[in-house]
Amino acid sequence: MMLKVRARRLCTVLTAGVAVHALIMPALASAQQSAESQAIQPDPAAGSDAAQTEGDSSQDIVITGTRRSLEDALATKRASSIIVDSISSEGIGKLPDLNLAESLQRVPGVQINRSANRRQGTVSIRGLPGDFAQTLINGQYLASPDVSNFSYGTVRSEVFSGIDVIKAQGADQLTGGLSGLINLRTGSAMDAKQGLAVSVDGTYEELTQKIAPGGAVTAAYQIVPDVLAIRGAFGYKSSNFRIDNFQVNTYDRIAGATTPTDNTDDILRPREVRLPNQRIKSDSLSGSFGLEWRPSDSLTAEILGFYNDFRSDADQNEFLVSVQSTSTVTALGSPVQSGDFGSTISALRIVNPQINVDTRLLTEKFRTGAITGRLAWTNDDWTVTGTGHYTKATRDVLTQGYQSIQRAVAGGNGYSVDIDTGSGKLQDAIFKLTPGAGQLVDLQQRFGAPIAPTYREVQATGRPGASFLGGFRNQDESEDELSISLDIAKAFQSGPLSAIRVGAVYRDKSQDQSQSIAGLFGANLASLSNSFYGYSIFGGGASYLNGKADGIDLSGYGQLDVRAITAAITPVSGVPAGNAYFIGPEGLVNFFDSTALSLIYTNSQKIYGGYAMLDIDQDLSDTIKVRGNLGVRYERSERATQAQRQPQVLSLEYENLLPSANLIFEFGRSLVLRTSYTETLRRPQVDSFAVLRSVAVDGTGQIVTVGLGAADLKPFTSENLDISLEWYNRNGSSISLMGFRKKITDYAGTTRICPSDGGGFGFGALTDASGVCRTVNASPAQGSFPAVLQGAAVNINVTANQDAFVLSGFEVSVQQNLDFLPAPWNGFGGQVNYTNVDFETKGTFRLGEISKHTVNAIVYYEVERFGLRAAYNYRSGYFLASAGTQTGADRSVKSRAQIDLSGSLNITDRLSLTADAFNITNAQLIEFEGASNRIRNYFEYGRTYSVGVRYRF
């Protein structure tokens, strides 16, 4: 039955394609004839060689740098039988962006998520979040244990020869990318330009005022010409940057309607304010290699490899104040209207607040590698290719950290704080604590024994409400996959069918994840002293928030020296009884937290797949040609998951039949019409949901996070329709318009519930206060949970297959060089693209990270000896769901624009210099809750500058 339905859909697409052809052919005929007379289209199969030939034929224009990259990418798009946009670096040269994520956002329909810290770079394709895309390496799966997919900002660009963003795929390509496939290409050893190139660069960060070095070596050599070749690319990339942040984590509703659906008369005020900042130092060593052997015209053997080792240390300090039940709060101004969301008090004084000085050191190691072996035999009629592929990635996160805590107490704790959120203007923000907190808690006084069962907190004996807390979550993740595939193609010399292709693949994939919490059991607390205060992550760099908020000064707020404290209190004297405790890598006692057992698991998947595909290549007339492919892919998936302390294995099996049709109509050499219908899927990954119920309470007792578990999720699929019209009006230039529609079914989304009776989670009755679920009464400490305060935010997440939703929109892209103009104007050119995305659903959930409008533009001027480039990126506002206790409730991101500049100087044919400036307007990232004046976050990144030199031997 399923096969019949899919077949009917395929026939519908074919009929629609023929109808479109019949309708537009007469209208385009005259335009095609006039355009064809002036268009000179290079052979798409020639790729960059065609562009180089053109450059050699002109005395005024040498095609290199930005123009070369854009025109190589355009040649790839023009020749493709699927819908793809590409980034092509010159040879294996440097992509002129801060990282690969920044480069990918230049592609139409691609958006970068800047809310993610540490610049690891997550991207969205056509509105779907980063985990909906699938990253490939040379057409094969690339392992990544992180749910947000491969971290593009962790690797040098020189190890890749190009990147393809595949938006409508064929049946012969791997599944897993619901929004698209991102294929990282390392390049062919035989086709690579022979020689050796060395580049050295340095990156200067405005906030840290530090320079981070980097460099790369690329080489290719034909050991036996046209028979045996080898290539390699190796790069080192470091960074030393800072991210400053002013955050209102949660708001309290102090007045308003009793019904949660009417918020117009609500009055909200800040409940918890954090002043976070991070200083990140990282090192990345990456490389790729290729060995290719062609002993005869019919036989080719190839080995391709890729490896990346990324390590970072992030010093994170967070000064936090919050309203407690014994606090006194006074508004310092009148409520400001927030439209349909009521009113917001932005300025207030809190007397007797809770104060936390929270300092952490996050050490992350991210390693990923892949090796591919391929053997191909071909003659005039047949091609047989066998491929073996193995990939593995690991991610280890060690979080050392300590907190000095002064809680609110009856009669007052002696502190007060004045706060103004600025209502969306950072320069108006104020944070002033009285008295200053240079020594919040006396660390030289006596502390009691660590409080069981996590043993994280000790209470001071000499001051009410004062305590010292140690240890945070550590996490280890790994993923690996072994795949074996066989592809067979039969070519035809005439007729509408150019080839019939079939193939089969077997994939064996496994995932493991473990989490633990470090505590203070057995720690030498007598060695604590007040000398551990005063540590500053600013390190002589720019002032907090780059001096943009005169009313905030963190210089005397007593950050803790994490490294020194750990060294002083270790080694520990023992380990508690029970197999839940062990000595962790930081030397402290670690504990398998009972609230996170659902995140400790082993998962395995086996995928059996096969496809059949018809390649079409037919001249319909002297000027009209149709090409493309029709195919279907079948896959059977088997998954088995076992969580810690859960004896039974949770199994799930399913199968999918995925048809595809890609038809390209060419009208002469300048007009191309593409039509596509594809079905894609994304398997529910264990690292994107919990298989067991989990409950967690943050250390302040103000945020509760509950996950109800989802072990039986179906895979979710998408039916995709794409149509584009491309006009290649001149060599290296084009104008294109594309429309798309994605209907996603069985989406595994997360919704929030707020049962008035509390749902049996142990925190009593709950109430919906202006869209935020909160406790009605305080709850005492219970088991491994600390005490939960009255009015604490309770995020109860239900993950299940939701109703279908639709993403639709269009893309416009214009790429032009002006080489037809007289010198010096013939060196100008550029590219601009615009994407519009709409989200429609009948369900109640919201999908995050969707920007309705995205604009990218590149303008360049290049001549033989130098080049200049300006890049502009704009992304309209988008929604973000809560991601944990540190982010608070759901929020939205304001629209943001960024401008980057770069230049190059070719001193000789072999020696060149480069200079880049990123975020030259010093744009901020701003998040808000409901209305733009109800501020949630100001992020300050600062500007970044880079200079480099490259020499080719």
Automatic annotation (TrEMBL):
<keyword id="KW-0798">TonB box</keyword>
<keyword id="KW-0675">Receptor</keyword>
<keyword id="KW-0998">Cell outer membrane</keyword>
<protein>
    <submittedName>
        <fullName>TonB-dependent receptor</fullName>
    </submittedName>
</protein>
<feature type="domain" description="TonB-dependent receptor-like beta-barrel">
    <location>
        <begin position="436"/>
        <end position="920"/>
    </location>
</feature>
<dbReference type="GO" id="GO:0009279">
    <property type="term" value="C:cell outer membrane"/>
</dbReference>
<keyword id="KW-0472">Membrane</keyword>
<feature type="domain" description="TonB-dependent receptor plug">
    <location>
        <begin position="77"/>
        <end position="173"/>
    </location>
</feature>
<dbReference type="Pfam" id="PF07715">
    <property type="entry name" value="Plug"/>
</dbReference>
<comment type="similarity">
    <text>Belongs to the TonB-dependent receptor family.</text>
</comment>
<feature type="region of interest" description="Disordered">
    <location>
        <begin position="35"/>
        <end position="58"/>
    </location>
</feature>
<feature type="signal peptide">
    <location>
        <begin position="1"/>
        <end position="29"/>
    </location>
</feature>
<dbReference type="InterPro" id="IPR036942">
    <property type="entry name" value="Beta-barrel_TonB_sf"/>
</dbReference>
<dbReference type="InterPro" id="IPR012910">
    <property type="entry name" value="Plug_dom"/>
</dbReference>
<dbReference type="InterPro" id="IPR000531">
    <property type="entry name" value="Beta-barrel_TonB"/>
</dbReference>
<dbReference type="InterPro" id="IPR010104">
    <property type="entry name" value="TonB_rcpt_bac"/>
</dbReference>
<dbReference type="InterPro" id="IPR037066">
    <property type="entry name" value="Plug_dom_sf"/>
</dbReference>
<keyword id="KW-0732">Signal</keyword>
<dbReference type="Pfam" id="PF00593">
    <property type="entry name" value="TonB_dep_Rec_b-barrel"/>
</dbReference>
